[in-house]
Design brief:
about 350 residues; eight-stranded parallel β-sheet; 16 helices; 8 strands
């Protein structure tokens, strides 16, 4: 049995952190579903930037849309929705079979809106309506300004993937926004079944401190933060407040591990996958990590619900001069700026390809 199947059977969903038109047209995504237990998919501006820049698979569509008068952001979202609705249809049987627990794909609002609550909410509503698929999550960053948009989107019945979370405090604030939206739906007599995941980024922690801590502490911070967050997640699942909304028919907001590709070539390429095997969660993996797990991955112990040794490990980082709370805020801000950079580059790629392809008869 492949480690991917074993992990899925232990109760963790495996989602692919990638989308390209080539993956869809070649049948590779369908093969990952059938053979590697992949049950969902995520995307972000960086992924689409690489997909469109490095492939000719989008050229015909871009040429056609340019001649229809489309450009820039509107043209991009048409391309993205074509890919993601096609992927959503591939995952739809899983979504139906699990009654919305699994089988999701994700599309992010423009990262230029990360600090604009009202515009984020408006964009989420438009994209969800344009997609026309019940198993498409709209990604909203868990920034301070994003939290009101998350609550309002959930209240409006829009499934949300909260992205750019880096700490258990940021996660808990996100969970609270989700719950407020669900509680308001229940109070208004609305159907409380609105899907959501909360995406906590892992590997960026270790990349940020690799030159600031002793060798013995390298590649441990992301896992320790994840363990602390998982402890908070499991405590929330057991809380009376969450159980009240579950009893009313609401699904839980699932915890998702993001950025789980290993960035340090000196350690295992499945380091974070092994360490973060946990029921009731999702791990969204880069394509290389997914294939490495299927090829030579071996699972270790299941993540303990009480967080295990996370506090001891985090205390060692504090002794080494790492302020985890300050770094969490820094990483979230850097992540938002990084996505803006990818977005700007993506818009440049769209513009240059549009110009070049429009000249081709």
């Amino acid at each position: 049995m492949k480690a991917t199947e074993t992990l899925h059977d232990l109760g963790q969903s495996l989602w692919l952190d990638n989308i390209t038109r080539d993956l869809l047209q070649s049948g590779t995504l369908k093969r990952y579903i059938d053979e590697l237990s992949v049950t969902g998919l995520t995307s972000n501006p960086t992924i689409f930037d690489h997909a469109i820049k490095n492939s000719s698979a989008y050229d015909a569509a871009i040429r056609k849309k340019v001649r229809e008068g489309k450009s820039g952001e509107d043209l991009f979202f048409e391309l993205a929705l074509e890919d993601l609705t096609r992927a959503a249809d591939l995952f739809r049987p899983i979504w139906d079979r699990t009654r919305g627990v699994d089988g999701w794909v994700s599309l992010e609002v423009s990262p230029l809106l990360a600090h604009d609550s009202a515009s984020t909410l408006a964009a989420a509503k438009v994209l969800h309506a344009r997609a026309g698929r019940p198993n498409l999550l709209i990604k909203i960053p868990g920034t301070r300004e994003g939290l009101p948009a998350i609550e309002e989107a959930i209240f409006a019945g829009i499934p949300i993937n909260v992205t750019l979370l880096f700490s258990h405090e940021q996660y808990v604030a996100t969970a609270d926004a989700f719950l407020r939206g669900i509680e308001r739906r229940i109070a208004a007599g609305l159907e409380p079944e609105v899907g959501s995941v909360a995406s906590v980024f892992i590997s960026r922690w270790d990349a940020a401190v690799k030159d600031r801590v002793p060798e013995a502490l390298r590649n441990q911070l992301g896992i320790a933060v994840a363990k602390r967050t998982y402890k908070a997640y499991r405590a929330l699942l057991d809380s009376p407040r969450w159980q009240r909304v579950f009893n009313a028919g609401a699904p839980p907001q699932r915890l998702l591990w993001a950025s789980t590709g290993t960035k340090d070539p000196s350690v295992s390429d499945v380091l974070y996958v092994r360490a973060l095997a946990a029921p009731f969660t999702v791990n969204t993996m880069p394509e290389g990590t997914l294939k490495a797990l299927a090829d030579h991955g071996a699972l270790g112990e299941i993540l303990p619900a009480d967080g295990g040794d996370c506090e001891e490990v985090l205390a060692r980082f504090a002794d080494a001069g790492i302020d985890v709370d300050a770094l969490a805020s820094q990483l979230q801000d850097q992540g938002a700026k990084s996505f803006v950079g990818s977005w700007d580059e993506l818009m440049d790629v769209i513009a240059s390809k549009s110009t070049a392809l429009d000249k081709v008869s």
